[in-house]
Amino acid sequence: MIWETVRLSLRSIRRNVLRSFLTLLGIVIGVAAVIAMLTIGSGTTAKVKSDIAKLGSNLLVVRPGRPASTGGPGGLDQAVRPLADKDVAALVAHLTGARAIAPASQKQVRVIFGTESLTSGVTGTDSAYLDARDWKLVSGRPFSDSETRSGTGVCLIGETVRQQFFGAGEPDGEIIRVNRTSCKIIGLLEPKGYTGFGQDQDNVVLMPLAAYQRRIAGNRDIDNIYVAADDRTPTTELQPRVEDILRDTRRITPDREDDFSIRDMTQIADAMASATTTMTGMLGAVAGVSLLVGGIGIMNIMLVSVTERTREIGIRLAIGAHEKHILIQFLVEATVLSLLGGIIGILIGLALAGLASAALTIPFAPSPAVILLAVGFSALIGMVFGFFPALRGARLDPIDALRHE
Amino acid sequence: MAANAALIGFDTVWKSYGQGEAKVHALAGVDLAIQRGEFVAIMGPSGSGKSTAMNIIGCLDTPTAGTYSFMGIDAGRLDRNRRALLRNLYIGFVFQGYNLLPRTTAAENVELPLIYRGAPARERRDLAMQALAEVGLVGREHHTPAELSGGQQQRVAIARAIVTRPTLLVADEPTGNLDTARTHEIMELLTRLNRDLGLTIAMVTHEADVADYAERTIRFLDGHVASDSSKLEVA
User: Fold this and answer.
1) Which domain holds residue B102?
2) Closest Cα partner for B93 from B120, B79, B112?
3) Which CATH number goes with the domain that contains B132?
4) A398 closest CB neighbour out of B60, B112, B117
5) Per the domain annotation, does B20 fall within a domain?
């Protein structure tokens, strides 16, 4: 019986192809918009999360200067006291629960090889940096302890730098010029790609901190200290320990605020992910409104259909159709119609999301739950908006309906 | 009057429309009985109440006052879904305009009442083929109404009406859209169904020669039965 009804409704949909298509369009656009939004949204969230993870997971970053969140004039009333070697030494000596502690200073510097040149982010650091930032070498080796200590002119380069200078060639052992100093390449860093903010993470040159300080920065300041928590220690637990040790070595009396800030990359990742999720939800809701409009379209066309087929309803009632038979017939028709629209919409939405993902270089992350929900929701729209027209058909008086021209 | 034994019984049936001054009585206290197996023609000018009477006989409508009994059931007091069931089980309809579903094959049109009985597809097909054979439409089963002549369409409608083996066939001007030759064919068919299947037929017509096929003619005028004559009495 239900199968009969579905077949019947498919036939009546086919009978008015153009009209059915136009009716579907509302649902198609609505569902496609929702699916595309949610899929692109979850791709973006995944992208943001992985970007932050690329900075290193469970990472704390210490910077000089008062935390921005405490407000006030910040560094204006006093010069920012930079981080120093002894701060790093104190952390290495006293901090528990850390996997790696690495100082880093960086600057945009012109790098030259042969006739090619490139402005690159040059970072002075030590061998713990790779560990702290979960960064691996594709080839070569990290700095040795003696190179770090003596500040030898050796460097590790990122993928972008390699491409610019060497194309398909092998960079290891070549000498590049960084600023006015020369530097021997000893390793190639694994590519990390762009951040969500469009920054190329592979356009980098790493060199020993001492070499950087002496030959490029011209001072002994440290811009950041990266502290990576070990697997058993959450960053929220590690952060106060880092703070205590630094307050101690930097001799900050209890009545004064920190003159450094500690950023928890995990928290930033979570905050950014939840921001994108909220954004996605909002866009999805806006797209959902178009589904409502599509539903009203279905209601409209079903009312037309019932009116048009008044005589048919009259015949069916006369030969013994129960009210519920007519009701079901039109309900099924509306549901099949909007379900069809939903399925087409899902396909279009996924295609759009696929294209957008490729264009924005974010992962294509279709969610089965969202797709199922869209299918269910479009069926529901058909039922809800088809109910009133169907009821109107079912309540027709057979005598009047038969007389209808 | 043996109204209880009759298939159809009108006991002072009134049917009124409108309110107060504008109130119109389509039927004004009609008494009528039709026995099983009768072939009755119902005649009368428009506005005489014959259509209203037919709607009540076909359980499509209910009296405003009085009692309408069908097969001993007080059909005038049933709700619309129960009357739908009654129509589906015991009554077949043939209309002047054929009233077939457009773009639907003859066989599917004939199957329609069986669908509402919940009959399985195979049984429906077999019964529909059989009914189409009975009205002489073998080979036309898969034609749509648009591909059939008026006479053929009316045969499909008759097949649809008899496929459920009803007790009563209600025919409303069944030959109204047909030429003389086709009219003759359709009336022969109805007569044969009445005779061979024992089908009770109530037929509205305004043509005397069509009414002649019936054994009995009831004339309505101003909501009353003006005359009720049987061929046997005349003879």
Assistant:
1) 36-51+80-234
2) B112
3) 3.40.50.300
4) B60
5) no
